[in-house]
Design a protein that fits this description.
Layout (H helix, E strand, L loop, with lengths): L1 H19 L26 E2 L3 E3 L4 E5 L3 E3 L12 E10 L11 E6 L2 E3 L1 E2 L21 E9 L6 E7 L9 E6 L1
Parallel strand pairs: 1-11
Antiparallel strand pairs: 2-3, 3-5, 4-5, 5-9, 6-7, 6-10, 8-9, 10-11
């Protein structure tokens, strides 16, 4: 009887732990600091780069701090400087997810910043993320946006899209 009670308690503990979800849902590269923080959002309600955001569907994202890059001559659109972000997507839902469903919009100093495609530097854009992401897996996307030559305040608005239509989340910082 004691064994049955212990086994039942262990099963209950495992079931509750399984429902809790991962505390850090991604496996970041060395340059990506992933923290799940209970921070006070900025006045605009945006999250800092490096913060994990989780939607009700179970999908979560982390946007790295940007790195500056001079685009190649073949980049579209032509630009003098871009901000490159690593977006780590973790599928904590129960169904497969297509990262190409993400809607990512950037603003630099309050002005729209177009996505840059520079295949010479491996920046092929969000449209190339066509592989399905199974539940419990993550992937990293490299996206670049045109920014001014001088440091700029950048906001990235990310909406997961798809059936669940979760609300967008905004990340912000300097680029």
């Amino acid at each position: 009887m004691k064994f049955a009670n212990t086994a039942a308690g262990l099963c209950l503990l495992l079931a509750v732990a399984g429902c809790a979800g991962p505390s850090v849902a991604v496996t970041p590269d060395e340059n990506l600091t992933v923290e799940q923080r209970a921070e006070t959002p900025s006045a605009s309600g945006a999250a800092a780069f490096g913060t994990q955001r989780v939607w009700a569907s179970g999908l979560s994202v982390v946007v790295s701090a940007p790195r500056s890059l001079k685009p190649s001559e073949t980049a579209v659109p032509p630009a003098r400087r871009t901000a490159v972000f690593t977006i780590t997507v973790y599928n904590g839902s129960k169904t497969s997810y297509r990262p190409s469903q993400l809607a990512v919009r950037a603003l630099a100093n309050g002005q729209p910043a177009p996505e840059l495609v520079d295949s010479v530097q491996g920046l092929n854009g969000l449209a190339t993320a066509v592989a399905e992401l199974p539940p419990g897996r993550d992937t990293q996307l490299q996206l670049a946006f045109v920014v001014p030559e001088s440091p700029a305040q950048v906001e990235l608005t990310i909406k997961p899209g798809g059936q669940d239509q979760d609300a967008p989340t905004v990340f912000e910082g300097q680029a």
